[in-house]
Design brief:
By secondary structure, the protein is α/β, with parallel strands linked by helices. It has four domains: about 5-60, GMP Synthetase, Chain A, domain 3 (2-Layer Sandwich); about 70-130, K homology (KH) domain (GMP Synthetase, Chain A, domain 3); about 180-405 and about 600-655, Ribonuclease Z/Hydroxyacylglutathione hydrolase-like (Metallo-beta-lactamase, Chain A, 4-Layer Sandwich); about 410-590, Rossmann fold (3-Layer(aba) Sandwich). Helices cover about 35% and strands about 20% of the residues. Helix 22 (about 625-635) links the parallel strand 26 (about 615-620) and strand 27. It is globular and about 80 Å long.
Length: about 650
């Protein structure tokens, strides 16, 4: 469906018709391809005004024959960009008319808006800047390679999506039918794991998160996954036996008819089943932040690698991960984007992990507004600003309740406790095992150790990171602008990157791990998995668990049904995945305060100070104890809101 004459007429008020070569929707973006691009490269007021008038995301790009020859364009770019920025790579995407420049210090260009305009004006290309990771990353290279090799496919995908979205939007406006809004709890309600929420209107279906389970399945969870994969079908389906043709015959898969999928962050309990959905045939858009895309790809790769070794046949594989990249549409914070015919999405800071986002859904023309928090941290953090809770409008909020039954100590105490335990263990000749999630907790603990060493809370000690923490930390170093202002400025303005401290070492292969395991020196190891459900941590427990000089420190949430929870609750004889039984004689400690979640007090503060205050509060992402305790606390406050605690498969009509 071509762009309407009304939209074009509005564009022609700002840009002469003779300069407009093509106007087309590419996904949620209205893209205008131009002659004389050098004139408009400096006119950032034009896309801003058009966005306000048309209520669309606007992008201006040069027409195909407008851009300079790549060799000449690169020469101009190298002349304009400060030498201290250090260019590492220049790639020309002739499909999307983009010159992609990889720099060590892109902030030296970003701080000078006129310089970025000059680059576009002089080269006549749409210039995109990327930060080169200071830590080598095969995952980031993989993502870059997929984006470059699938440029044509991705453009076709975006144009098809854009046309469908625009066409359906026009139909909705013309129909005039009465709307409704309901949410369906499809996973992660009264439990932690397999998070998934369906938001449905008369005209749209949007899925928010699509996660894998954590720990052992509960008694009511017949399958190793979210309920929505199995509705109205027998429970013995093996997705490996469903070929491409047959997949289209499974209409029971609710997400197959969804307009879009929104991913709040990359942890597997929120993102883990998306490649499975893609293998089953989902070809719709996935809205997320750039860091979330990159981290998810890293975790998916790790899943495939581990499952090939342990089971031989993973639930999804590399082609599905590539499709995930193609179907992903990254958007930034505070950028309002059409994700369905009558639903607009805006991301806000969640404070949980890198790139994590709160999803604000604006339905219809002011018809209803829902906030889905995903996982949030409404409090101090070494890495991130606290979760945002100021929105244009809110009628209902779906809020996580992981720690709804208890509070979390301040970060300052957590850093001091961690430093004390490490120092005592190391000075006693022991080694320290810290199980961490590769994303979030690993980097938070690295920062805590660096702060403790530089602040004199503990002596310097060699710290080793195992279990793809190298890849996820590399991704963190690429996105300092997503971090707390103090940490961001420390990295970008002052050139002090705490992730590159000289006593931090990344284990990249089995031989390096063996060297650490055999070392006679006191040391610290941060390793996955954070809940002791598998991964390299098992090797460290096998080697060091029986020695009373060593320590095991938990710094993150341990879900019900995991080995981590069993040890926290007192288990001292454990069985490893290979069947070996070992005794744990080492010191076992839990240091609260590093969690990416809010405690009960901060969750309450988040809701009490939310503006505007919601009429409905719907609780999710917490076990029965946490949900019930937090529900009581909210009801005791008596602020006029209705508090709901649905179970999986419950549906709630909001309007």
């Amino acid at each position: 469906m071509p762009v309407s004459a009304e939209i074009k007429a509005q564009i022609f008020k700002h840009i002469p018709k003779t300069d407009v070569v093509e106007v087309v929707f590419e996904g949620p973006f209205l893209v205008i391809y131009l002659r004389n691009f050098h004139i408009y490269a400096e006119r950032d007021d034009i896309p801003r005004r058009l966005a306000q008038e048309l209520k669309k995301r606007i992008r201006l790009k040069p027409a195909e024959d407008e851009a300079l020859d790549p060799e000449e364009a690169e020469e101009k770019a190298r002349r304009l960009i400060p030498k201290k920025a250090i260019i590492h790579d220049v790639f020309f995407d002739t499909v999307n008319m983009e010159m992609q420049i990889e720099l060590e210090r892109p902030e030296l260009v970003f701080v000078k808006p006129d310089l970025l305009k000059a680059l576009r004006r002089e080269t006549r290309w749409d210039v995109i800047l990327h930060r080169k990771p200071p830590i080598e990353s095969l995952i980031l290279d993989f993502i870059k390679g997929v984006l470059q090799s699938t440029a044509k496919e991705r453009k076709r995908f975006l144009r098809t999506l854009g046309e469908e979205l625009y066409h359906k939007e026009m139909q909705v406006r013309a129909s005039g039918k009465k709307n409704f809004v309901r949410v369906v709890a499809l996973g992660g309600y009264r439990e932690v794991g397999r998070s998934c929420t369906l938001v449905q209107t008369r005209n749209s279906r949007v899925i928010v998160d699509f996660g894998a389970p954590m720990g052992k399945p509960r008694d009511d969870a017949e399958e190793n996954g979210p309920y929505y994969l199995y509705v109205a079908q027998p429970f013995d389906i093996d997705i490996h036996d469903i070929d491409e043709k047959k997949r289209s015959k499974y209409p029971f898969l609710i997400p197959m008819s969804a307009n879009s999928l929104i991913l709040t962050h990359a942890h597997m309990d929120h993102a883990g089943k998306i490649p499975t959905l893609i293998r089953l045939g989902y070809r719709g858009p996935i809205y997320l932040t750039k860091p979330t895309r990159d981290i998810a790809v890293a975790l998916y790769h790790d899943y495939v690698k581990l499952n090939r070794m342990e089971r031989g046949r993973p639930e999804f594989d590399i082609p599905d991960i590539k499709r995930f990249i193609v179907q992903s549409i990254p958007i930034g914070y505070h950028e309002t984007t059409d994700v369905a015919p009558d639903i607009k999405l805006t991301f806000y800071h969640a404070g949980h992990i890198l790139g994590s986002a709160i999803a604000h859904l604006h339905i219809g023309e002011g018809f209803y507004n829902i906030v889905i928090t995903g996982d949030i941290r409404y409090g101090e953090s070494l890495m991130f600003r606290k979760a945002e809770n100021r929105f244009p409008r809110v009628e209902a909020v779906i809020v996580e309740s992981t720690y709804g039954a208890r509070d979390i100590p301040p970060r300052k105490k957590a850093v001091a406790d961690l430093a004390r335990i490490i120092d005592e263990t190391v000075k006693g000749g022991g080694k320290v095992i810290i199980p961490v999630f590769a994303v979030g907790r690993a980097q938070e603990v690295m920062l805590a150790i660096e702060e403790a060493v530089s602040g004199g809370l503990m002596d310097r000690v060699e710290v080793f990171m195992d279990g793809m923490i190298d890849e996820t930390t590399a991704i963190h170093t690429v996105y300092p602008e997503y971090m707390a202002p103090l940490l961001r400025d420390r990295i970008t303005k002052y050139g002090e990157n705490p992730f590159l401290a000289p006593y931090f070492h990344f284990i990249r292969n089995a031989s390096q791990r063996e060297e650490v395991l055999d070392s006679a020196e006191p040391l610290v190891v941060l390793t996955t998995s954070g809940m002791l459900t598998g991964g390299p941590v098992m090797e460290y427990l096998r080697a060091w668990g029986p020695n009373k000089l060593n320590s095991l420190i938990f710094v993150g949430y341990q879900a019900e049904g995991t080995l981590g929870r069993e040890i926290q609750q007192g288990a001292r004889t454990i069985v490893l995945p290979d069947g070996e039984e070992i005794s744990l004689n080492l010191r076992i400690e839990t240091v609260d305060g590093f969690s990416g979640h809010s405690g009960s007090r901060d969750l309450l503060r988040f809701l009490v100070h939310m503006h505007p205050r919601p009429k409905k509060v719907i609780l999710c992402h917490g076990d029965e104890e946490a949900i019930k305790a937090f529900r009581r606390r909210l009801q005791e406050v008596r602020l006029g809101w209705e508090v709901l605690a649905p179970r999986n498969l419950d549906a709630i009509r909001l309007r």
